[in-house]
Design goal:
Length: 325
């Protein structure tokens, strides 16, 4: 934990690091997925290959950070790489679906759809585990769910539709649902590994998870030939290679800031930072990449962010349960 005197500086550093990294990465990912390169108007042929490159950058960043900080995770209660094989697989499939969705729906739509993670969590918790939630939490979930529905059903601008490689709302939102499902399993499995192997450091987990991403993504891309196509495309259009490199670097830096934030300030601070970051990502997409939203979509987006804001407020004001004596 940070000392009180330096906590504000560290918190501001975390905010700027996460904002800068992921807003830049969002801008670049939308640019790669929607921008035709060269005079012939060719599009980048393999969005999934971006995940492979990012995983390489992230695993290397984690390894270097552990070397610089002198942190090791080799105790008997520390997780090995094999402990992360299942979450490594699901964390490969989930983000790949999220990237592929950018062919079918706009970046703002993808960001909002991926923001409704709490809705399926609450539904499954109520139905299968008999969990009880407060009234405000149900209102927040309702705002997010209805907001996503309003946004997805609202008419899209013709300009936003023209930028998509293959407009298809049902497929795009379906891929986001798959992304959310696998992300949920990944988070739960990571928590389980950390519970069983409490000496595991966050940097060690980051390195092992991303190494599995490299293995699974590399095997898939080599098998279907997309890796060779992506490499040839990047050589043909150096500006695309620059975008891909920026995507990887910002992803690696962002992951380091996320692990630092959650270890220093806790999950609530991280949730607040990442939620507000999504709002600015949508604004930047609208302003810089000219992905206009119509009135109905703005209303839906406003409902989603209102629900997310309410969820953060509920978490911040919730009183911890007293331990039984």
């Amino acid at each position: 934990r940070a000392a009180p005197g330096g906590s504000l500086v560290l918190l501001l550093s975390s905010i700027l690091g996460i904002y800068g990294s992921y807003i830049c990465q969002g801008y670049v990912s939308e640019r790669i997925s929607t921008t035709p390169y060269g005079g012939g108007g060719e599009r980048f042929p393999s969005l999934v290959s971006l995940n492979l490159l990012q995983a390489l950058a992230c695993s290397l960043a984690a390894f270097l950070a552990m070397a610089v900080l002198g942190k090791k995770a080799d105790g008997v209660k520390s997780a090995s790489m094999m402990d992360f094989i299942l979450p490594g697989l699901t964390s490969t499939i989930g983000p790949a679906c999220g990237l592929l969705a950018l062919k079918n729906i706009s970046y703002p739509a993808q960001v909002l759809a991926k923001s409704c993670k709490m809705v399926p969590v609450m539904i499954s918790g109520t139905i299968f585990y008999n969990k009880k939630y407060g009234f405000a939490e149900y209102v927040a979930a309702l705002l997010i769910g209805v907001g996503i529905g309003v946004f997805s059903l609202a008419k899209s601008s013709a300009k936003a539709q023209q930028k998509l490689a293959s407009p298809n709302k049902m497929l795009g939102y379906g891929l986001c649902v798959v992304n959310l499902f696998f992300d949920g399993y990944t988070n739960a499995k990571e928590d389980d590994v950390l519970r069983l192997k409490p000496e595991t450091t966050s940097l060690s987990m980051m390195m092992h998870m991303n190494l599995w991403n490299v293995v699974f993504n590399g095997a898939y891309l080599a098998y279907n030939g997309e890796l060779a196509k992506a490499s040839a495309f990047a050589q043909k259009y150096p500006e695309c290679a620059t975008d891909a490199l920026l995507f990887c670097l910002t992803g690696a830096i962002g992951q380091l800031f996320i692990y630092f934030t959650i270890n220093t300030f806790g999950s609530l601070a991280l949730t607040t930072i990442t939620t507000t970051r999504k709002f600015f990502s949508v604004l930047i997409s609208v302003v810089l990449l000219a992905t206009p939203l119509l009135m109905g979509q703005w209303i839906g987006a406003g409902m989603v962010f209102a629900g997310l804001g309410m969820s953060i407020f509920v978490k911040a004001t919730k009183k911890p349960k007293k331990k039984a004596t």
